[in-house]
Amino acid sequence: MSVRKETRRNPTTGEVWEKFREDVVVSMPDGSTTRVRKDAPVQTKRDAERFEQELRRSILNGTFEKESVIVVPTLAVFEKEFISNYAEANNKKSEVETKKGVIKNHLIPAFGTKRLDQIGAREIEGFKSVKLRQGKSAKTVNNMLTILRKMLSVAQEWGTIPFVPKVKWLRVPPNKFDFLTFEEADRLIAAADGQWRAMITLALKTGMRQGELLALAWDDIDLVAGRLVVSRNLAYGEITTPKNGKKREIPLGDDVLASLKRHRHLRGDIVFCKDDGGMLTKGETKHPLWRACKRAGLRRVGWHVLRHTFASHLVMRKAPIKAVQELMGHSTVMMTERYAHLSPDVRKDAVRLLDHVNTASMSQVAVAK
């Protein structure tokens, strides 16, 4: 609605009064949009509606004061302000790059020439249909919609548009993930050589992300106490904090400690590095892992599969989900629960809770009656 009643309070005297507030969006003859927000100098809703009509006419004929006019930009124009004034101030570099990519490759081709106030529920539904026909997964489309909605939400917060259209998210099936069996994991470690054996062992036994492995420094590891602290992550060639912004401590088992002690070098502070001590890139770690897979007679897997393997093995060994969450560095336990089905006894143990429904409890009920 363009007319609404607002209740206000004088912070000094405590006096309360009501005013009608106009929020008018007008499509101009040249195709642009003008938005005006103004207190109505009237006391009734009917008068406020009349004032709204007068406001619209004055905007159209150019007699309204220019300083109260808000011009609604197109999405392509707003993108630059959104990235520089919002994303770069509030997101990590990796998140900013992701937003830039989605906006450039998907949102601008679909909505770039539209004013932000022209992007409504119908346009969003059409975008979803197009992307699904292009073969994009529901999760991928939802990720695109998340960025679009954030842009519109920021525009609303900044007073550029009056409201954000409702977004209906696509249903996403449970994520399928690959992981190695216990025997496959042992074969992979045995097939690796040099520092790659230590790196693969650490990935399989700690669940660290690839970027966290590449940013790991010797100062983060206590070989005497048998633990390490994950405090850094490599993303887009830049050292930043771990994915959820929090440090986490991981105890190290005997296999990992032995592997790290054999790998200990004096080339620099970084644990897994080039011959000159320089930091490796993610691309440089891909082929050594694939070579180890080939030697072990395994399918080709990526580093994230080793992370999945760590979590899967813990759950299969009956580790509590909460403990797995903390070791993985997941921000919510829901992210960890996708591994819960791997526990061989989880459903059986749950049903057994109903066995022998505490004869003592039944007796207490009988006595109470």
Question: How does this model look, in words?
Answer:
This protein has 15 helices and 9 strands. With 369 residues, it is α+β, with helices and mostly antiparallel strands. The strands form 3 sheets. It has a 4-stranded antiparallel β-sheet, covered by helices on one side. It has a 3-stranded antiparallel β-sheet with strand order 5-6-9, with no helix packed on it. The protein starts with a strand and ends with a helix.
Anisotropy-based shape: elongated
Mean pLDDT, to the nearest integer, reads 86
- Quickly count the domains: 3
Oligomeric state as shown: single chain
The radius of gyration is: 29 Å
- Beta content: 5-15%
Q: How do the helices and strands follow one another from N- to C-terminus?
A: EEEHEHHHHHHHEEEEEHHHHHHH
List how many beta strands DSSP finds: 9
Largest sheet: 4 strands, antiparallel
- CATH level-two architecture of the largest domain: Orthogonal Bundle
Query: Uncertain regions: pLDDT < 50 for 5+ in a row?
Result: none
Provide keyphrases for this structure.
single chain, 369 residues, alpha+beta, DNA polymerase, domain 1, hpI Integrase, Chain A, four-stranded antiparallel β-sheet, three-stranded antiparallel β-sheet, 15 helices, 48% helix
